[in-house]
Design brief:
59% of the residues lie in helices and 12% in strands. With 396 residues, it is α+β, with helices and mostly antiparallel strands. The strands form 2 sheets. The chain has a 5-stranded mixed beta sheet. It has a two-stranded antiparallel sheet with strand order 1-3. Helix 1 (5-28) runs antiparallel to helix 2 (37-57), helix 2 crosses helix 16 and helix 3 runs antiparallel to helix 4 (85-108). The protein starts with a helix and ends with a strand. The model is unreliable at 147-157 and 350-357 (pLDDT under 50).
């Protein structure tokens, strides 16, 4: 089952706003004649995050459309499709359509329908890349004749902080004007206005803190949804007490934790039959715990699955060209395990909607690092794995 959309919509929208802002920057840097894999990888990371968040909220249409954009970008990144002008236009249209859908969702709190034309185009290109030029050409010809999609661009109102600054500037002007009048009553009003504006400014500048228990309240449903799709049996325990988190960090850790849980269920926790054969309980167990350590907030996500096969990671990293074999042989186990965060690392031979091409954990690491945090892996062979997320208690 998806999470309670009404309850967690504000967190979802805050994360989406940030991802769309980053997406705009990356798309603007995407040059037709000078494509770089690192730019494609970054766009893939953003689209992957939007896909995962949308799926967790039950917005399957947006999740599927994001998945198809991700597929198209991967084909370009892997060299199966050249990024020519027509295909570049298709990418821009697809991303713009995704943005409009998310803005409509934000406005109405309901999932919008993605236009059929662009959805079908992506599916045709993905399933038959040899005829991609024909499909894109037909689409662009139809696009010229058809009316443009509804313009959902919204002008952003001035921020509250900017309004407060304008208020303080006007108070200053009033103060200067009063010097000629020298009215004691006006002077008293000026002092009251300045104090009120400064209190409001301080209040808005102070970071709000949110209890972790409120954030993780939806996670049992998230785990149930993923486990059901993976045909696994999993129980989740959460022990975070009354600990709080800087509200500015919430959007940065939700997706990473969901991705870690998704990977734990997909790759770590065994099927009921495998667990029975290994002498383990039928139900796999995932636990989320949190604690303060000096100025850090530490969140651990543990599972009692098969753990990380370090030798397999070495083998895959060598096969994918992430590191040289000689370098991998000398590399400590702790460093080898960190290779699973590489954007090209994947243990899957087939890409699916729940897990796939290996950018999920890369996206998780990037999100945590962006707020000065890190992710460490503690591996217990055959007994499970713990991912330890450490972030500052206060975000600068």
């Amino acid at each position: 089952m998806p999470v309670d959309a009404n309850k967690y919509m504000p967190l979802f929208l805050a994360e989406i706003d940030e991802q769309l802002s980053m997406l705009d920057e990356q798309i603007a840097c995407l040059e037709n004649d000078n494509i770089e894999n690192k730019k494609i990888t970054e766009i893939l990371r953003i689209i992957h995050t939007i896909k995962g968040d949308s799926a967790a909220m039950g917005f399957d249409g947006i999740a599927l459309f994001s998945h198809n954009i991700e597929e198209l970008l991967s084909m370009i990144k892997d060299g199966f499709l050249p990024l020519e002008e027509d295909l570049y236009t298709v990418i821009i249209d697809s991303v713009d359509c995704l943005k409009k859908g998310l803005l409509a969702l934000k406005k109405t709190q309901k999932e919008p329908k993605i236009p059929v034309e662009i959805s079908l185009l992506l599916e045709k290109i993905i399933s038959d890349r040899n005829n991609a030029c024909i499909y894109t050409s037909n689409y662009l010809e139809t696009r010229k004749k058809a009316s443009q999609m509804e313009n959902l661009q919204m002008e952003k109102p001035p921020s509250i902080m900017n309004i407060i600054m304008e208020l303080l500037m006007n108070v200053h002007r009033l103060e200067n004007a009063n010097r000629e009048i020298d009215s004691g009553e006006i002077h008293s009003i000026i002092l009251d206005l300045r104090e009120t504006a400064q209190k409001l400014q301080m209040h808005l500048s102070s970071p709000a803190r949110i209890k972790l228990s409120e954030i993780f309240g939806a996670f049992p449903q998230i785990v149930a949804t993923i486990a059901d799709k993976e045909q696994k049996e999993v129980v989740l325990s959460i022990d975070v007490g009354e600990l709080e988190i800087d509200s500015r960090a919430v959007g940065k850790i939700i997706s990473p934790i969901i991705q870690i849980i998704r990977n734990a269920i997909s790759h770590g926790i065994e099927s009921p039959a495998e667990r029975k054969k290994a002498g383990k309980p039928q139900y796999g167990h995932i636990s989320i715990e949190a604690s303060y350590d000096e100025n850090l907030l530490k969140i651990s996500i543990s599972n009692d699955g098969r753990s990380i096969d370090v030798d397999m990671v070495r083998s895959i990293a060598a096969k994918l060209g992430i590191c040289q074999e000689e370098e991998l042989r000398k590399m400590p186990e702790e460093q080898v395990m960190q290779l699973i965060f590489d954007p090209g690392f994947t243990t899957c031979s087939k890409v699916g909607k729940m897990s796939g091409r290996g950018i999920g954990l890369y996206a998780a690491m990037r999100g945590v690092e962006s707020i000065g945090g890190k992710i460490e892996i503690l591996n217990n062979p055959h007994k499970g794995t713990t991912f330890m997320i450490s972030i500052p208690q206060n975000i600068d």
